[in-house]
Amino acid sequence: FVKALENDDIDLISLDDETVPVVDVTNVDDSKIVNKTDNFKAGDDLTITGNYNRSTFFAGSSIYDSANVNGIGFVAGDSINILGKHEYGFVAGNKIDIKGEYEKDLFVAGNVINIDKTSKIGRDFYLAGNKATISTVINGNLYVAASTLNLDNTVINGNVYVTTSNLVLGDNVVINGTLKYNDNANTKGIDTSTITKVETYKGIEREEETTKVKIQDFVVSLLGLLLIGVILNALWPNILNKLKDATTEYNLANDP
What we know:
By secondary structure, the protein is of the alpha/beta class. Helices cover about 15% and strands about 50% of the residues.
């Protein structure tokens, strides 16, 4: 039983003649919630916090994501800042700044991409963009298609596959695997970096602007797909579950 006080507070609950105190949940820190349910958000300016024991989908003009996601973190927007921890990541936008941690794989597509030295990537990293700067540790392979790729204070414990017009390796670059890039790229710093093996492949001769346009078209297409996903989820948030239930019912009804 619940004992209600005059000020609408709850004092005690009695279960089977045993009286136990009620935990006050009126001032619980939102960031400590283990399984938040608002895993889909769309708007102009979003600030995401808290813990999610499921995949998330956030879309907006400006996104500041410091959530902890035990699942796939989908983020799409114009300006994106990632500071939280995610199991997997899919990020698409114009300007992307990542300072968070990804336990497994990360996929990023954008115009200007910065992977900060405070970030961590636990497995493979796939990147498509115009200008990309990477300054972190990658514990798997790196796959890049970009107009310009800058590696600086970077350790990659796997192979690196690059298609680019400009490949710049700055200070303290270590690749514990094979660096493979197109032979028509402008390069700097390869000879002064620590690389297990370097290979090139025959690059297609093309104007740099053409490369930029193709990359930008890819990014726009990816953003379009993400936004379609946002619209579908907003209009029919339970459509996948309904389809699954309908399929299950059909199979049961027709099971001999």
